[in-house]
């Protein structure tokens, strides 16, 4: 990052941090009531929830902490909720990873601003005199508070990514956060139930309401870590496969990158994009069984050579279908050399019979092959590759997906 933009980013982060602190001090001095029991109980839970949170696709984390904060706000008011949030913004995980200090400051600042403004709205509008959550106005206020929190929290996080990575703020928000909105609405319903049970039957109800959620989140995080470890090992195998073929070093990663870009243009959800990236990384893993002399042959391939190479989608499919969380998408590996007009291999299926993931990978794969030097021809430049893609619309490639790929390549030319 250039020095100018780094200084701007630091000034922005300090402004957020100081604004968050000032707002918190003001609100705590205005709404003095602090529940020590609330701080201890909800502080422990929110701290656990945030430290067991699950990484989001681009950056940031998803956790049940906003549901916990909202419960603390309904039960004890803004001051307790702000202190609880202040505790939650210290991520042990980040300290252990030696995350730069300014990221901590931003984290604390943005949480305090989101909590501060939303709890302020809550305290002004919420009718405590009825001592009941279940009056229409109070339910409405809780939803308004949660929506305010969600919007401020996600836009502040998107803003700092936008400044540091120079991507439009709305694009970051749409890719990373918009899809979390239904989850937050679920958390609001959960917060209402938790607060009602706490008020009616006492603090022990947290054992049956929040504890299972935090444990579920912890289990999800462990499963996520296991997947990551498994994928890391598989990527080592991919590198070994690529090392066999001197012409395709880094090919799988590039195919995965373009597959992701196409998927974003097609507006697939983040869950599917993540799966597609994993599958794209593995699309040529079947080459592990292809004879080395065939892969690295510099002269024209014989019919026998082609038969040998054409085995790799089937071998790859057999490998990928053994990976539990990818097995339902393994057919994208099997069909990644099929063509729109039915002239591909291994089965010669066409158009609607080819799964979406296979169509995407096929285009990304072909583009990377065109733009890389091969023993029998030189790499095409970007302009020639776009022409080649255009010429093959409706023959080798699906029209809609191919046009998205061309759009991406033209955008890259401009930037
Ligand atoms: Fe392939």
Poorly predicted ranges: none
What CATH architecture of the largest domain do you see? Answer: Orthogonal Bundle
Hetero groups in this structure are: fe (ii) ion
Q: Helical segment tally?
A: 19
Q: Give me the strand/helix succession.
A: HHEEHHHHHHHHHHHHHHHHH
C-alpha geometry: elongated
Summarize the structure.
With 415 residues, the chain is mainly alpha-helical. It has 19 helices and two strands. The protein has two domains: 221 residues, Arp2/3 complex 21 kDa subunit ARPC3 (Orthogonal Bundle), CATH 1.10.1760.20; 170 residues, Hypothetical protein af1432, CATH 1.10.3210.
Question: What this model shows, in words?
Answer:
The chain is mainly alpha-helical. The chain has 2 domains: 3-223, Arp2/3 complex 21 kDa subunit ARPC3; 245-414, Orthogonal Bundle (Hypothetical protein af1432), CATH 1.10.3210.10. Helix content is 69%, strand content 1%. It has a two-stranded antiparallel ribbon. A hairpin with a 5-residue loop joins strand 1 and strand 2 (61-62). The protein is elongated and about 85 Å long. The two termini are 17 Å apart. The mean pLDDT is 85.
């Amino acid at each position: 990052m250039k020095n100018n933009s780094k200084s701007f980013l630091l000034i922005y982060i300090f402004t957020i941090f100081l604004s968050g602190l000032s707002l918190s001090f003001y609100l705590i001095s205005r709404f003095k009531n602090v529940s020590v029991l609330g701080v201890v109980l909800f502080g422990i839970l929110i701290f656990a929830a945030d430290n067991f949170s699950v990484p989001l696709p681009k950056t940031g984390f998803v956790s049940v902490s906003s549901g916990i904060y909202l419960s603390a706000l309904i039960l004890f008011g803004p001051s307790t909720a702000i202190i609880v949030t202040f505790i939650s913004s210290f991520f042990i995980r980040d300290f252990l990873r030696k995350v730069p200090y300014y990221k901590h400051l931003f984290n604390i600042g943005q949480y305090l601003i989101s909590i501060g403004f939303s709890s302020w709205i809550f305290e002004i509008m919420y009718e405590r005199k009825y001592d009941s959550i279940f009056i229409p106005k109070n339910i409405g206020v809780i939803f308004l508070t949660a929506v305010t929190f969600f919007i401020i929290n996600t836009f502040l996080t998107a803003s700092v990514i936008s400044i540091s990575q120079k991507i439009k703020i709305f694009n970051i928000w749409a890719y990373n956060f918009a899809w979390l909105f239904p989850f937050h609405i679920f958390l609001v319903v959960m917060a209402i139930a938790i607060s009602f049970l706490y008020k009616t039957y006492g603090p022990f109800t947290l054992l049956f309401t929040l504890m299972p959620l935090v444990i579920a989140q912890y289990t999800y995080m462990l499963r996520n870590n296991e997947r990551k470890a498994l994928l890391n090992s598989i990527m080592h195998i991919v590198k070994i496969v690529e090392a066999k073929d001197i012409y395709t070093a880094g090919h799988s990663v590039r195919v995965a990158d373009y597959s992701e870009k196409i998927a974003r243009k097609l507006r697939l959800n983040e869950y599917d994009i993540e799966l597609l990236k994993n599958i794209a990384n593995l699309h040529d893993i079947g080459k592990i069984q292809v004879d080395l002399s065939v892969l690295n042959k510099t002269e024209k391939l014989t019919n026998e050579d082609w038969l040998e190479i054409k085995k790799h989608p089937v071998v790859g499919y057999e490998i990928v279908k053994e990976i539990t969380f990818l097995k339902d998408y393994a057919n994208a590996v099997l069909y990644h050399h099929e063509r729109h007009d039915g002239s591909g291999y291994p089965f010669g299926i066409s158009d609607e019979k080819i799964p979406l993931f296979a169509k995407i990978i096929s285009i990304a794969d072909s583009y990377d092959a065109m733009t890389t030097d091969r023993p029998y021809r030189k790499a095409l430049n970007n302009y020639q590759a776009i022409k080649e893609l255009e010429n093959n619309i409706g023959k080798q490639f699906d029209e809609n997906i191919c046009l998205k790929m061309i759009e991406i390549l033209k955008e890259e030319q401009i930037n």
